[in-house]
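Minimal example, chain plus nicotinamide-adenine-dinucleotide.
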Amino acid sequence: MKGVAVLGSTGSIGTSTLNVLRRHRDRFRLVGLTAGSNSGLLAEQIAEWQPAFAGLASGAGPACLIEAATRPDVDIVVNAVVGFAGLEATLAALKAGKRVALANKESLVVAGELVVLAARQGGGELVPVDSEHSGVLQCIAGNAAALRKLILTASGGPFRGWEPERVERATVAEALNHPTWRMGSKITVDSATLANKAMEVIEAHHLFGLGCDRVDVVVHPQSIIHALVEFADGSVLGQLGFPSMELPILYALTHPERALDNGVRPFDPVAAGSLTFEPLRPGGFPAFDAGVASGRTGGTAPAAFNAANEVAVGAFLAGKIPFGRIAVVIEAALSKHRAEAAASLDIVRSADRSARAEAERLLG
Ligand code: NAD
Ligand code: MG
């Protein structure tokens, strides 16, 4: 029996994780739950699972996340917190030798080198939950040395095919209406700007040790193929399935093994229909371009990108800025940022704080 802590248990990935755990009570014991808010749902979860530890983080900083992530009875930490707030728990869990099933991609974006180092130093193991990276990991299966290039798929978001002027003025409801995935509001907006896909390029760079220039993105509106992996001999493997986060969550818990599970819709190629691919419209996704550029710069640049994005997305969701302004704020905040090596948590924190302040100043 493996002990599991779920950080962000009340969110989209958190509740999907509990669905998976409910089907595998013989393998996993839920010992820790944390949420950032939504104490009502957290109370229901506590009543159902009777975990040894539960914490409500709201306003209290990362202390309860770190406590849940480092308990001796925890083997696997599912980090399903959204945003920069998840970073310290990722680092603490890896330093304590845990497996981290990582949904919180922001951890890798803002401090990829520190996260990889924490895993090496503490003997922890980083396994992606993000569907594209789970797909890559499943395709690699022991052939990491022969990796040539990755192709991540993007649905293109809700505004694929829209005129740029209409996208500029898109409403919150339109941005939250994702064509193929139901997710938390922040990542759904990130999927509309494609900032999410830029974060995934950076995430892949750290997870699989490839330069950002060897991680390509292609639009694949059906979201059936999650990733394509090209090997040294030119052979390409892909990972397929109907969109469901429960499969990558389960795989992150059992990797490199596979569990017997009937929880996801069986794949049916005829029902999946035509699978189509298009390039990203050049210049059509400035938040994507800014994010990938920050990944190429490296150091603290991705932390600044992430911070500006979090502020801008928050302002958009609060109705304070139009959709088109998100990318403008990111670009402007990044242009003010002077990147340095992301050599310590303090340096990353300070880059995060100053880019947030700059983005807020731009928002007036
Ligand atoms: P969500 O908003 O639905 O849930 C976030 C969870 O984190 C909630 O439990 C919330 O209470 C908690 N939380 C928020 N702020 C917190 C804070 N400051 N301190 C502690 N806890 C806090 O988000 P989600 O869609 O589940 O996404 C979670 C993470 O997984 C994100 O990093 C996202 O990019 C990533 N991800 C999500 C999906 C998906 O399908 N939803 C897919 C791939 C990756
Ligand atoms: Mg993804």
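Strands lie at 2-7, 28-35, 53-56, 76-79, 99-102, 125-128, 147-154, 215-219, 225-231, 236-240. Residues 45 and 175 are 30 Å apart (CA to CA).
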